[in-house]
């Protein structure tokens, strides 16, 4: 199941990167830098300031982890096709089991490894998932939903400003969460189901 889900996510990431720039692999984008910046935002949501009372905003923490995963998959895809990279990533993830630890210290280690190598620290990311008590299946569901929404936005005028982000008084990501929660994440066409449902609702509500 994990191998299939990895391949699905890698394929989706390849597709959305190609929508943005069909020659994206040749551009050598600084994906590692995007991970670094997102990691700082992630730490802010988790909390680190000792001079004020803070509680981890775990839903935002998970959203930031999904954003980092987008960039991590892009880095991994610089090394081969979705099928090849899925095999490599599965091999790395099968090296051990992770238990929750110190999130802040593990995030700092992950960020340092990313900056030093300019590659995606997959093992370090797996540790962050454990720290956030976010199983791989939840990462898959959240990633696929966000990826499909990004593609949907691109297909409906996001670049030229014609896309309508609020439908019937709710943001598109709220509609996404509702739709995704009603579908079977284990279905082979899970991403296609989300896209179709978004499209139907968008035309019913936003384009009336």
UniProtKB/TrEMBL annotation:
InterPro entries: dUTPase/dCTP_pyrophosphatase
Domain of life of the native organism: Bacteria
Pfam family, one: dUTPase_2
Keywords attached to this entry: Hydrolase
Enzyme class: hydrolase
EC number(s) stated in the UniProt entry for this protein: 3.6.1.23
GO MF annotations in UniProt: dUTP diphosphatase activity
CDD domains: NTP-PPase_dUTPase
Annotated protein name in UniProt: dUTP diphosphatase
Annotated SUPFAM superfamilies: all-alpha NTP pyrophosphatases
């Amino acid at each position: 199941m994990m191998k299939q889900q990895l391949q699905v996510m890698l394929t989706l990431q390849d597709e959305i990167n190609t929508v943005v720039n069909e020659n994206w692999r040749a551009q050598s984008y600084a994906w590692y830098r995007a991970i670094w910046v997102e990691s700082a935002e992630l730490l802010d949501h988790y909390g680190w300031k000792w001079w004020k009372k803070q509680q981890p905003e775990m839903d935002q923490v998970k959203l930031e982890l999904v954003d980092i995963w987008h960039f991590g998959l892009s880095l991994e895809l610089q090394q081969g096709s979705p099928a090849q990279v899925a095999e490599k990533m599965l091999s790395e993830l099968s090296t051990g089991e992770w238990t929750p630890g110190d999130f802040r210290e593990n995030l700092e280690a992950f960020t340092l490894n990313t900056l030093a190598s300019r590659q995606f620290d997959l093992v370090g990311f797996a540790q962050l998932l454990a720290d956030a008590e976010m199983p791989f299946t939840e990462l898959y569901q959240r990633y696929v939903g966000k990826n499909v929404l990004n593609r949907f936005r691109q297909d409906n005028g996001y670049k030229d400003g014609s896309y309508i982000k609020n439908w019937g008084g709710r943001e598109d990501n709220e509609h996404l969460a509702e739709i995704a929660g009603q579908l079977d994440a284990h279905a082979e066409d899970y991403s296609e189901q989300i896209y179709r449902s978004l499209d139907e609702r968008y035309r019913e509500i936003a384009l009336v």
